[in-house]
Write a structure and sequence with these properties.
Chain B: GO terms for molecular function: 2 iron, 2 sulfur cluster binding; oxidoreductase activity. Chain B: Pfam families: Fer2_4. The complex is a heterotrimer of chains A (164), B (104) and C (357). Chain B is mainly beta and 104 residues long. Chain B is 7% helix and 29% strand. Chain C has two domains: 222 residues, FAD/NAD(P)-binding domain, CATH 3.50.50.60; 127 residues, FAD/NAD(P)-binding domain. In chain C, a hairpin with a 4-residue loop joins strand 4 and strand 5. In chain C, helix 1 runs parallel beside helix 7, helix 4 packs parallel to helix 5 and helix 7 runs antiparallel to helix 8. The chains are: A alpha+beta (164), B mainly beta (104), C alpha/beta (357). The interface between B and C is medium-sized, with 34 and 34 residues.
Chain lengths: 164, 104, 357
């Protein structure tokens, strides 16, 4: 399906979702990379040793969610912009999603933006918590979004203001 | 239309200069391709084909395809997608193959 | 007559790497490009590259052009001439070039042709209307010159160029009405597709353009569905308004010089059209002519860079330049190239190369 629509299926997402125990333990990276292409910067950028070394550069990335701290450096280093960090422990009723965002305007901290799913449909509202600039990848800001907890695994983009 | 702000790029533009399109004065930046200056000014029809007189714009924008031939300062068949804009240039819509022998 | 050890035609990702590796072997290099800048099509690639560190993965194409240019400048034995259009190859092994209004004659012991590729077109009614542009052309206009092509774009083709240019148009503030793809599946990398889908852009797989319309400039297109036999299905027409249609249906190698020189050519559709027969060192059937990059088969820029390295090293070695590291450098580059092509994404290239090398 993904290859026809460009949108990963539920099954695709399930395969890369950390365990419920790990999700309950704080921020963690979700690598939504489903196709074997020659690429390895996620491994090279990971300072925690969580992303496994590639035996073959075409392999799908392997991640040890136990070692991942959710620092998000890989988010801005992934050429495919396919890595997100989710955090179910952000607050009692909100979770946090960190996404790469290479459009203008960059949203203001504390502003509210439309939260979009993997098909670009608006599914709720997100509050911008932080705009993080990763060293060496400043032109790929990482936007920290507080969203309702049930949307943490669905929000993957935002719309700032009107049209995008 | 010009891009003023871009999330990744900053644009280095030359000096703003005046030039003429079919006799009408318009502005562009020196050193950019004539086609870019025309497009920014809303001009998309660059010539008419020689058999059926159909309007043509550019196609490849890197000097390969000959879709964008115009008359520049009296010289026909100039690839305006790669020819650089200079102040005061006279750029004209080309009809068909262009007049190769100067009229005087 | 200008004399040099190695003349390289084209200063894109392949030509720049060829120049650097040939110069590192001690060869005198003359690097020519018809444009006034180095980098070829890298200068409009605002996205980050795939591959590994050696191919500058995770660095944007525009920045790779700058890095390679700096490296070229470090070598005193590379002479760079920009605005030099190579016109022909002659039987005595001389090439001519137009340079600053003059005709240059150049005699090199070896030539590396790295002229790249050009965009293909697609036949459909009214495909010549102004506003119907190659996707790469729109990328040049937008990313190099900062001019918007229009307000609403319909993209034809979902290969990497179609997907990337759609994304880059949105970054520039242009609306993308959709991507039309004749094949049943998306052709480019799915991470690129996911980026444009989560921005709300539809991808119409198994669809093609029936016709474009517009009164002197394009105003829209009618698209329709294709069945399993790639035949259009009447009644499935959709009207899509757009003031720009981008054609991203692939590239074809710019091989004029190779034909003229008499290199043996072969039609290999997986590689984009007619390509030169060559060995693994990138030498054509003419021992003084090497090739690298898209002219030898359309592929990703990361592969073009490695091919450039191989061609530069081997061309230099063939005229007696040597360094203790040659064997190691060559075999490392060859294995990098094999690695880049070894996955499922490299299947088309591998099958094409089988017919050629």
């Amino acid at each position: 399906m993904l290859i026809k629509t460009g949108v990963p299926t539920e099954g695709d997402i399930q395969r890369v979702t950390p365990s419920p125990e790990r999700m309950a333990g704080g921020p963690v990276a979700v690598i939504e990379c489903f196709q074997k292409i020659p690429c390895n910067p996620c491994y090279l950028s990971c300072k925690q040793g969580a992303i496994e070394e590639f035996k073959d550069i075409n392999d799908l990335p392997g991640i040890d969610h136990g070692k991942c701290t959710g620092c998000g450096i890989c988010i801005a280093n992934c050429p495919g912009l396919a890595i997100f960090v989710v955090d179910y422990t952000y607050s009692d009723n909100e979770g946090l999603v960190k996404i790469p965002y290479e459009y203008l305007p960059v949203p203001e901290v504390n502003s509210r933006v439309a939260a979009l799913n993997r098909e670009g449909q608006e599914i709720g509202t997100a509050r911008v918590v932080k705009v993080q600039r990763i060293k060496g990848q400043e032109r790929t800001p990482v936007i920290w979004l507080a969203v309702p907890r049930d949307l943490v695994m669905s929000v993957r983009n935002i719309r700032v203001g009107g049209q995008q | 239309m010009r891009i003023e702000e871009h999330p990744v790029l900053t644009f280095q533009r030359g000096e703003k200069v005046k030039f003429y399109f079919d006799g009408k004065e318009i502005e562009g930046y020196e050193g950019e391709p004539i086609a870019a200056a025309l497009h920014a000014a809303g001009v998309r029809i660059l010539r008419h084909s020689h058999k059926k007189n159909r309007p043509r714009g550019f196609y490849c924008a890197i000097g390969n395809c000959s879709s964008c031939l115009m008359v520049v300062d009296g010289t026909p068949n100039v690839r305006v997608c790669v020819e650089k804009l200079k102040a005061g240039m006279r750029v004209e819509t080309q009809q068909g193959r262009g007049e190769l022998i100067a009229k005087d | 007559m200008l004399k040099t050890d190695i003349a390289i035609i084209g200063a894109g990702p392949a030509g720049l790497n060829a120049a650097i590796s040939a110069a590192s072997m001690g060869a005198g290099v003359l690097l020519l490009d018809r444009d006034e800048f180095v980098g070829g099509q890298l200068i409009k690639q605002t996205h980050k590259f795939f591959g590994s560190r050696e191919q500058h993965a995770s660095t944007r194409g525009i920045d790779i052009a700058g890095l390679l240019h700096e490296k070229v400048k470090e070598y005193k034995n590379i002479e760079l001439r920009l605005g030099a259009t190579v016109l022909g190859y002659y039987p005595d092994g001389v090439i001519t070039a137009e340079y600053q209004g003059r005709l240059l004659k150049i005699k090199a012991q070896r030539y590396i042709v790295a002229t790249g590729a050009a965009e293909k077109s697609l036949p459909f009614p009214n495909n010549d209307l102004p506003g119907i542009y190659g996707a790469g052309a729109v990328q040049t206009l937008t990313n190099v010159y900062g001019v918007l092509p229009g307000q609403r774009v319909l993209m034809v083709g979902s290969g990497n160029i179609g997907l990337i240019v759609s994304y880059q148009l949105m970054q520039a503030g242009v609306e993308v009405a959709g991507i039309v793809e004749a094949a049943p599946n998306i052709g480019g990398y799915l991470v690129h597709a996911a980026k444009i889908r989560r921005a709300g852009v539809p991808v119409f797989t198994s669809h093609t353009i029936k016709e474009a319309y517009g009164d002197s400039v394009v105003q829209g297109a009618v698209i329709w569905q294709l069945d399993e036999k790639w035949q259009p299905v009447p009644g499935t027409e959709k009207d899509i308004k757009a003031d720009v249609i981008c054609v991203a249906v692939g590239l074809t190698p710019l091989t004029e010089l190779l034909w003229q020189a008499g290199c043996k050519m072969k039609f290999v559709s997986q590689l984009g059209g007619h390509v030169p027969v060559r060995d693994e060192n990138m030498m054509t059937t003419m021992p003084d002519i090497y090739v690298a990059g898209d002219v030898s088969g359309v592929e990703e820029a990361s592969a073009a860079m490695v091919e450039g390295k191989i061609a530069g090293l081997c061309a230099a070695a063939s005229i007696g330049c040597s360094t203790g590291e040659f064997d190691e450098l060559r075999s490392r580059a060859l294995s990098q190239l094999a690695e880049l092509r070894s996955g499922p994404a490299g299947e088309k290239i591998r099958s094409g190369l089988k017919l050629l090398v």
